[in-house]
């Protein structure tokens, strides 16, 4: 009966996927598309991710911290400056810069349903805070 508890808050959401492991990226894409998510990417390096950021509308981002030796933080800075929420993922105990200490994180290996729930919660809280700022 898990299908009945799907993540309706993700329907139509544009998610930028930053992941350098091809199999993980494809698994994320397949799963999130089943939830009605529009995937931007995926991409596994900063140059490609920055191009996607510049060219595509994005609602939220799923960012692997370590992209083949490159740290994702310059992109996270751009997302934060644009007011786009993101979820950091990592398979390591990375030292997150203090400016991202409060950023939502999901450790790898992650449970895909828990990851989707975190994305949905992040989108819901972002919508609520944007709604309050307009009042």
Protein described:
- Helices cover 41% and strands 21% of the residues.
- With 135 residues, the chain is an alpha/beta fold.
- The strands form 2 sheets. The chain has a 5-stranded parallel sheet, with helices on both faces. Strands 4-5 form a two-stranded antiparallel sheet.
- Strand 4 and strand 5 (70-71) form a beta hairpin.
- Mean pLDDT is 87; it is low at 1-5.
**Major sheet size, sense and barrel closure:** 5 strands, parallel
Beta-strand percentage range: 15-25%
- Overall residue-averaged pLDDT value: 87
Query: Count of helical segments?
Result: 4
Give me the count of strands: 7
Low-confidence stretches: 1-5
H and E string: EHEHEEEHEEH
Structural class, by secondary structure, is alpha/beta
- The percentage helix is 40-55%
- Overall geometry comes to globular
Distance between the termini: 39 Å
- Sheet with most strands: strand arrangement: 2-1-3-6-7
Radius of gyration: 14 Å
Briefly summarize what is shown.
By secondary structure, the protein is α/β, with parallel strands linked by helices. It has four helices and seven strands. The chain has a five-stranded parallel beta sheet, with helices on both faces. A two-stranded antiparallel sheet has the order 4-5.
